């Protein structure tokens, strides 16, 4: 009888694929059984995204308790794995004496900032967006007041921010944190967090690598296949990454002046201001972007 890992994913953008891949790896590489649960958002659409996700997990705890007890009766449970918003569900694991882990689907840099939030909150009197002193993370460039995630820049009296702060405190009492990164990408992993007793485990990169049969004859792929090996720069900031018009223009100029072949996945800048930037675009499905990144011509 195989030990089973129960994984709970909140309704946050960008969490589905890493959780699905982690589940698959636990089964394929470690001989475990895995059950992946989804917390459904039931709050009104007008509710801030982060708050909706937190409510989804909190309201799902009774059902999660039922599922955990049912699974535990059929096979031994090895662990409960949640995302950073799913920490309220860890008390279910505690009731059964099962270890609980947080799977942080973003890189270590973001997690390092997240773990520092309680200290920043205690030492700052102003809103984080108004801070004059930058945040220093070992191994990374200084983070200035306008650069942290939006949830951190919300009013400190808002439900979004207070929920984020509560998660940053609670994540320190789990049995371990899994991070979607690897040391060759982030050598500073684990540095600069004195007093953090939670083990940090790099488990990445966990991205979708199994391709489905779509977009095989896309114009972009036909062009890419004609280029020399490792001659094309591929630029993408993921499903949630957007730049201002100014930064988009700067990146465009940098790519042009590099005199390198490139494929750039461009999203509409989040600042709707006028710009002299003109881009010639081709529409790509995201699965096509994956095929691009796996081509030998990219490097």
UniProtKB/TrEMBL annotation:
SUPFAM superfamilies found in the cross-reference section: UDP-Glycosyltransferase/glycogen phosphorylase (SSF53756)
One function term, GO molecular function aspect: glycosyltransferase activity
Entry keywords, A to Z: Glycosyltransferase, Transferase
Superkingdom field: Eukaryota
PANTHER family with a match to the protein in the record: GLYCOSYLTRANSFERASE-RELATED, UDP-GLYCOSYLTRANSFERASE 72E1
Record protein name field: Uncharacterized protein
């Amino acid at each position: 009888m195989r030990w089973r890992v129960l994984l709970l994913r909140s309704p946050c953008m960008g969490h589905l694929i890493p959780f699905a891949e982690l589940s698959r790896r636990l089964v394929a590489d470690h001989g475990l059984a895995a059950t992946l649960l989804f917390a459904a958002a039931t709050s009104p659409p007008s509710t801030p995204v982060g708050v909706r996700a937190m409510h989804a997990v909190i309201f799902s705890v009774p059902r999660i308790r039922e599922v955990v007890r049912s699974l535990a009766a059929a096979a031994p449970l090895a662990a409960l794995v949640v995302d950073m918003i799913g920490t309220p569900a860890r008390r279910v694991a505690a009731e059964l004496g099962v270890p609980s882990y947080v799977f942080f689907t973003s890189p270590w840099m973001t997690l390092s900032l997240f773990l520092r939030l309680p200290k920043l909150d205690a030492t700052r009197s102003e809103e984080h967006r108004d801070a004059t002193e930058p945040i220093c993370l070992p191994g990374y460039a200084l983070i200035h007041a306008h650069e942290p995630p939006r949830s951190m820049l919300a009013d400190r009296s808002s439900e979004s921010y207070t929920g984020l702060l509560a998660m940053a405190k609670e994540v320190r009492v789990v049995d371990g944190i899994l991070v979607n990164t690897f040391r060759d990408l982030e050598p500073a992993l684990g540095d600069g967090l004195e007093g953090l007793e939670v083990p940090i485990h790099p488990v990445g990169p966990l991205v979708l690598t199994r391709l489905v049969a779509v977009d095989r004859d896309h114009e972009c792929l036909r062009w890419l296949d004609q280029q020399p090996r490792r001659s094309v720069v591929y630029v993408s900031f993921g499903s949630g990454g957007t730049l201002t018009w100014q930064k988009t223009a700067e990146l465009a100029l940098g790519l042009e002046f590099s005199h390198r072949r490139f494929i750039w996945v461009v999203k509409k800048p989040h600042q709707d201001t006028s710009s002299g930037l003109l881009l010639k675009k081709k529409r790509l499905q995201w699965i096509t972007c994956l095929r691009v990144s796996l081509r030998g011509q990219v490097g």
